[in-house]
Amino acid sequence: MVGGTSSDNDFLDNVELISLDPLSHPVPECLRQLENYPVGMRRGGGATLNGDLVWDIHNRLEINVEGFIAGHPVVCGGYRGSAMDACYTYDSVEDSW
Question: Rounded to two decimals, what is the model's pTM?
């Protein structure tokens, strides 16, 4: 999960990995404290990509992600007062977006 809103409706930039099966496949300790996302936002979409385009269903935007490294997590779109069309990929070696 990336972003969200606080109780004061501020946009958040925190990142949290969540396992679909936490009992059998918990998130490893080394992935529990990731670098914050570059901007505070909500309603972004994340994936591990294999193609060149992403469809942001919340904002109805098609986003070009050509050039991102296949197999690396990417978060695109989102909302920060208006629809965002930027994408960021996570570099696990550098712990950065």
Answer: 0.67
